[in-house]
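Can anyone check this?
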Amino acid sequence: MYETSARLAWERFAAHLEGHGEGLFLAVSDTPLAQVARDALAGTAEARGFGPDACTFACLRRAGKALSPDDLAFLVEGLDPLALVLCDRAGTDTYRKALACADRADAQLSNHGASSGTSRLQKPADQDDCDGERTAEPHAAAAPATDRAAATSASDASDASGASGASGASGASGEHPRKGAPEGRDQRSAFEKAPELLPRQGFCMALGRPVVAFDDFGSLLSTPALKQQAWALLKRIPARS
């Protein structure tokens, strides 16, 4: 089924895609990345265990057309990457809007018999957390460990009552059970909460998928110190055994 959904994504957006056909490690940018940036991401993918030449590159503006948030949602949910890197502000902003469209994209894939209702990570949709800075300045590194722990604790507390129903959250409706919930508890669905979790620059889990967002990835490759800041975020992507 993953092969079917990936094929649908490639058929629909072939003009905007390059690289590995399986889409396990997906990098999204507004315009085509410079070769040095592509090489850096390819090296990261290999270092994290995805293998050589494992990157798939998606460009929002190409061939005289710009991908909409709905388009990007279909592309990402179709490829269903195990890691997603948003390389610039436009990519991050578009994906933030795309997260709100992810339930519709999943429904479209279901209509083609290509959606399983869960990602390849097999992680319930409501178990999202964020370790980046949602309002970080450009080139900011990930949040300190103490901040990450506090953010994760707060996320776990707010999601505890809904975790049992999370596995169905990526179905066609994207609805979340609300009846009988404690007063004041955030009972929004994972699709509704996910856009708020995505940092401007940082690491987070969005709909069970590790995401690294950059304000301008290419600019971080200009000096060794900035490269270290980029690597500090990229190495948060779970390594494949």
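Reply from J.R.: I decoded it. Residues 2-234 form one domain.
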